[in-house]
Write a structure and sequence with these properties.
single chain; alpha/beta; 5-stranded mixed sheet; 4-stranded mixed sheet; binds ligand 6CS; DctP_fam
Length: about 350
């Protein structure tokens, strides 16, 4: 994030909080005229799934609060990288943000449960239900976030993570001397090392040029991201390994959340609940349509799905990551992992 942008946001947040302070001394009708701004930061560009989410969220919140709240959306690039957004949210400069678990897991180790290979179910409806409402999930992760002045509002899947590579990868041995871009959570890095690759952690914005200049040989992301970030232009293969779904979270500043007036908190909670089905459907539709775009734009892109024997080889290789997760997160992490394996029905 540029120094100027941070400075402007800090100044804006000072005026927002002083407006709130002075507002209590103003006559009631003046207070009602002054909308409060909720800043919502995204880790993805306009047109992305997170942007679709934020636009639908904004519309609902503004309608429900009848003009008392303005939701300002900050798309990727305006406030920095994913980790900057989380920092800004913890500080309260931004009230709401998307935070991908593959990056947030660096700061909050418990979040790395979603980097564990083959944990989620193949059943999208089941995943949706568990991600939006599992009580152990919200208990363990919610507490871990509160320790950092953050509140976990929801989690959802952005779709299957597909490997886009410049070599054919069907077996762990194909990863020999292969540089794979990964998100920064340590267990992501460990997973690809166990597969036999050479993992390289880079910000989202650097992936395209790193692929183009052969600094990395592949990366992993949902289909819509492969299309909108043009990763397919600089790779030759799309490989469905079934390894992971891309799980993102929506977080809020905890102190801000606790101070929200009851009616606004209610509008926020009900909107988050309504968005669960909406975003699930939009996700499936967007990934489907963007796959067709890639097929149209690059007909010679090689697309393949690993068979169950090939998947088993990767799953087998990554087994130690599960133990490492438990080592890193202790009793609470173990409790969460076991609860999720049971809920998704994908035991160890
Ligand atoms: O790969 C990443 O870093 C990013 N991928 C997506 C689809 N969203 C945000 C995240 O930072």
């Amino acid at each position: 994030m540029s120094t100027l942008t941070s400075l402007l946001l800090v100044i804006a947040s000072y005026f927002t909080s002083t407006t709130v302070l002075f507002a209590s001394t103003l006559p009631k009708h003046d207070v009602e005229k002054e909308p409060t701004t909720w800043r919502f930061g995204l880790e993805e560009i306009e047109g992305s799934l997170q942007h679709i989410y934020a636009k639908a969220f904004k519309k609902r919140i503004e309608e429900k609060t009848q003009g008392a709240i303005d939701v300002d959306i900050y798309s990727y690039g305006t406030l920095g990288e994913s980790e900057d957004l989380t920092n800004l949210t913890a500080q309260g400069t931004v009230q709401l943000a998307h935070a991908s678990t593959g990056i947030l897991g660096k700061r909050i180790p418990e979040m790395q449960v979603f980097t564990l290979p083959y944990l989620l179910s193949h059943d999208g409806q089941r995943n949706k239900r568990i991600l939006s409402s599992n009580s152990t999930l919200y208990g363990v992760l919610g507490n871990a976030l509160i320790d950092q002045n953050l509140r976990l509002l929801t989690l959802y899947s952005e779709g299957d993570m597909v490997w886009t590579t410049n070599e054919l990868i069907r077996h762990p041995r194909d990863f020999d001397a292969f540089k794979m871009r990964v998100m920064s959570a340590p267990l992501n890095i460990d997973t690809f090392r166990l597969y036999g690759a050479d993992p390289v952690s880079l910000p989202y914005s650097e992936i395209y040029s790193a692929l183009q200049s052969y600094r990395v040989d592949g990366q992993s992301n949902p289909i819509f991201a492969i299309e909108e970030m043009r990763f397919y232009e600089v790779t030759d293969y799309m490989i469905w390994s079934g390894q992971q779904k891309f799980i993102t979270s929506i977080i809020a500043n905890q102190a801000w959340y606790l101070r929200l007036p009851a009616d606004q908190k209610k509008a926020l909670r009900s909107t988050i609940t309504e968005m669960t089905d909406i975003i699930h459907e939009r996700q499936e539709a967007l990934n489907h349509s963007q796959l067709n775009t890639i097929k149209r734009e690059k007909p010679d892109m090689v697309m393949l799905t690993l068979n169950s024997q090939q998947k088993r080889a990767f799953k087998q290789r990554a087994k130690p990551v599960r133990e490492k997760y438990i080592e890193m997160t202790g009793k609470q992490g173990k409790r969460l992992l076991e609860a999720l394996e049971k809920a998704f029905d994908t035991g160890p």
